[in-house]
Predict the structure.
Amino acid sequence: MPRKAIIIGAGPAGLTAAYELLRRTDIIPIVLEKSQYMGGIARTVNYKGNRIDIGGHRFFSKSDRVMQWWLDILPLEAGAGGSERIGYQSRFRPVQTSVQGPDPEQCDRVMLLRRRKSRIFFNRKFFDYPIRLTPDTVKKLGFWKTLRIGFSYLRAAAFPIRNETNLEEFFINRFGRELYQTFFKSYTEKVWGVDCRQISAEWGAQRIKGLSISRTILHFLRQTFARKDGSSEISQKEVETSLIEQFLYPKLGPGLMWEEVARRVGEGGGEIRTGCDVTAILVEGGRVRAVQARDDATGERHLIEGDFFFSTMPIQELILALDAPVPPNVQEIAGGLMYRDFITVGLLADELIVRDPRGSGPIGDNWIYIQEPDVLVGRLQVFNNWSPYMVADPHRVWIGLEYFCYETDAIWNYDDARMIELAKSEMEKLGLVEASRVVDACVLRMPKTYPAYFGTYSRFEELRSWLKRFENLFLIGRNGMHKYNNQDHSMLTAMTAVDNIIAGRTDQSNIWAVNAEQEYHESTSAG
């Protein structure tokens, strides 16, 4: 009788686990997805032919394994950049599909090569993101402000805060207090809804990593003296993640990747059940035996047995679902874990007020970080610039306004009409879009988008240690591990879990070691 793996969640981690099991083992994956969609927060929402990427997903990784995995699913478009190359552990090879690859005008299952551009909107001015030392930056900040930032950074470099424990200390040590208070403090607190001093420094270590003023200056010098032969390297291993200049992107958004993976899982003998809500996890001794799942369409409950169990569901919900005595301390920690929720308002407009300063065309930003205290919106996406195929009418602009909140906040319960009016009024207030030029709109709400590094998170290791007793339970992905992973990190946790099953390894520490920046877990000796 074939062995089975029960996988809770059809996001990047869950679908990667399913596909890896089918490709590399005789284990049959059964994926249980609560919603009707593939990809989790990496899905693409189609609104009247206009597509929304929830949160924005650049397809970039320092892991060669992930990069090749993506290109095996969606080949690179023909002639992308002409002489573009992918670097492979300091060795280079041409992208094999760069000449013979699919034409995005003729085929949907294709990966595009896109330029990255993100900026900060502060004091009604645009600044490079990350902040760069340029004459334009000095001009916009003013000479004395720039001087204060410089001296503040030198002070932080000479007298760093020892044993940094919170995010404020993390930022000050890398950027200086002046720059932190100018560009990081208000925006970060808008995203998380709490003071930076309440957020663990671990969040910065995972999301910002080695980026600092000194690295920004080094990057500027590298760009200035970059070779002029017209070639580039997609994997860009020497570039800190936050400074990436190029990335891959599916023609129709990230959901295209995961819909294709789901199709292959089904064709390969796996099973994906949507509208399937896991309500109980049954255990015997040190192993999970089965899950109980409710069919949302019929209300029927089904017992699904398996040999291996992968969970991407929020750990808070996992603990509640366990049919086993849970110690009081573990219950307390799970109950105190916090999540930030997310609202996207899609606005279809005739045009933006702002234009590209280098020409008469529209701006080229993927993301714009809104660091203005007089509005609630935190970030803006221009979907046309992620992929021109994301918008039905190329003569219009399709933007996404991102709001960060808790489910208990009033804004979470705004009806769609009120939310759309708020978005339109804020865009007009910022001088980015005239409300009268908005021709259509929609609202999306995503609960538990960001696992938070406060609440009871400081005691998370107690919870994780207790869960180790279930040897056939693998926690993977962002919410599954309560770890603010990028898409590629989530995939690597799934790949590593499958590696362990194949190798017969019961120690799962290598799964939790993913997202340590040192070559994204490829070079363990570096970390």
